Amino acid sequence: MSSDTISSADSACYHCGLPVPPQVRYYVSVDGKDRSMCCAGCEAAARLIVDNGLSDYYRRRDAMPEKRPEAIPEELRELGHFDHPEFQQSFVRPVGEHERETSLILEGITCAACMWLNERHVALQPGVSAVQVNYATRRVRVRWDDRRIKLSDILGAIQSIGYRAYPYDAARAEDVADRERRTMLWRVFVAGFGMMQVMMYAVPGYIAGDGDMTLREQLWFRWASLILTLPVVLYSAAPFFKHAVRDFRLRRLGMDVPVALGVGSAFLASMWATLSSGSEVYFDSVTMFVFFLLGGRYLEMLARARAVRGIEELGKVLPAFSERLPHWPLPESEQIPVSQLVPGDCVRVRPGGVIPADGTVVDGVSETNEALLTGESRPVPKKAGSALTGGSINISSPLVMRVEQVGDSTRLAAVRRLMERASAEKPKLAALSDRWATVFVIVLLTLAVATGIGWYFIDPLRAFWVFVSVLVVACPCALSLATPAALTVATDALARMGVLVTRGHAIETLARVNHYVFDKTGTLTTGRMRLEETLPLGAMDTGTLHALASALEQGSEHPVAAALRDAAAGKPSVVVSDVTAVTGHGMTGHYDGGAVWIGRPDFVAARAGLSVPDETAKMEAKAGTVIALASEHGWLGLFRFADALRPAAADMIRQLAAAKIPVTILSGDALTTVAAVGRELEIADVYGAMTPQDKQTFIAHLQENPAKVVAMIGDGVNDAPVLAQAHVSVAMGSGTDLARNQADIVLLGEDFASLGEGASWARKTLWVIRQNLCWAAVYNLSVVPLAMMGRVTPLIAGVGMAGSSLLVVLNALRLQRRQGVRE
Known about the structure:
Mean pLDDT is 77; it is low at 1-10, 62-77 and 819-823. Strands 17-29-28-27-18-25-26 form a 7-stranded mixed beta sheet. A 6-stranded antiparallel beta sheet has the order 9-8-10-16-11-14, with no helix packed on it. The protein has a 6-stranded antiparallel beta sheet with strand order 19-24-23-22-21-20, with helices on both faces. The termini are far apart. It is α+β, with helices and mostly antiparallel strands. Strand 5 and strand 6 (139-145) form a beta hairpin.
């Protein structure tokens, strides 16, 4: 390559933007052109991007990543430390035999193009199975196979393209968000201060009569306004111009395009009028427009920050240190970081202290506050044997607990992951609003240009200002904010009620539900079953029946299994082998050299080749759940379990009946048992003895009616397929991990009262969204014709557009108030 093509000293590095030193000969071919680089590091990074087919990054970006020297914090200089298992304990979660998952915080992200580049680049690394960047929280979740790639390699890959990533730290993430809010507030302040000063100079021109002001005074006021408007345009309005340039580079038309065109053209025209002593200037319109628009966006940022803060609060709730009792029950203790706790450790939690991990009380009697996790502020009594959830607060007396789950395995971490999943998904309403807003921008620009051309032939002196007025007054900011602002605020409000939204579409779908389907065990009932009756059908005594049934159900999470284990406590155990679960039916295994089965009577009868015993119907008539146990030699026994209704279940069903919303119960229990619950709750549409496939088919049949919007409320592993089938699904907070992962909504407090309030809140949210969309549509349809007729000045246009955006955001913020919820 000839020296002519080599960058000179005053050239900028195409990758990082720094000046290229003299005599440097680094370059990379990007899109067929030789691009100069300032150093070997930038050359390597750029070549890596190009060689991996990621050249689109350079076309997408509107701002360069942080400079490479700044992109390597001190803690990342030795990346090998991140591969040590001890170091990974606090932030890496195993999700399989060799798969690992972690959450990292990214710095250097300035736009969607940066997010796109990081996702694509990390996904191309061998061994990385999943990567997702959340632009709102600046976090990246990565899953990888530790046999093929190390965490240090992933961090190095991110580092190689000019960004930095390290284990997520809530305090650092909050610092980044605080800096963004402070920057936005400064922009609002500069715009507001400039607007007030410019208005002070503009008012005399509006109220002065002919001859009241000399030409010299008019020019002085114009020059003062120009100087005061400069920082507003160059600093406060800078994001609009930057985003508009980005949109042009991406070959799309975003909402910042008409804003930038309106502000830029009005300012340039006013400046030209000042320099050439023209007839009209609109510096006051420019500053007011920028101030009101930034004010609306700042309020939206606060609303979004409030919703995201719910996730961040969960990250900061755990204490940094805990008081471990290494030789419990001996009293000596030591202070250790919470990150060093392991299952089996005994920890003392003093009154007012935060429970550091999930575990069980081994000594002490107290109460805990679990409001952050369940939305319920009433104290929860705790004694020896009670379960404790990390993040709850010990209120009255010291407790000693045994740690069972730590780090990403805790319930707190699971709730947090679900909240992050909801924040990462874009609801259908928001996506629809964005699509219409994009179409509206295209129509708006077409109308503005056509109007300007038309007025050029009618009144050339007014053509430009009418063009600017149309651009400004009809900017679809309110249309774009109408849905996301309301959904963001509502998601946070629902989480504080104990209704955790885990999918983006859940709120809008819950508001439209017109058929509720409930599971029985663990949903309408508490799920804390008691063994009420045992009927031996063979030579085996009651104690042995309990022991054998408990052994077969040892690995099951079903409430019946828990009740059998409780019944067998303190009795001699038996040994079973080859235990296998048959989902929705029961368990199979081997005992004393022969096959045994436990589960629904019809399932056991079919497997054992027997007829259902006559005693089954008699036990089912007493209400409750009946389970059978048999061997290959014949029937062994029957068990009847009782389960109490949840306290708020009856009120919930009465509310639905009053609203004339159909309710159905689906259960795997015998029809007689389900019918008894139905009679107690006054539900006629009940179905029993249903397999998971039967339930799924039933939901699918309901969905064949396009007018039906079905909600499924369930709990347990049997309900997971049905939860996935329904339009919107709700899982009780005590359900299995699989059920929670499938559900769109989780009731953290296990209280139907919160579900009723949440459904009412969802309807209110949908009503607020409709109000916002209606206002945005009416506003745009009414003011655009007025602006095209020349009856709206740029000043009025700026106030109207900014005011419409503010109104939409303020209307959405009403959802933060829980009082006065109406159906």
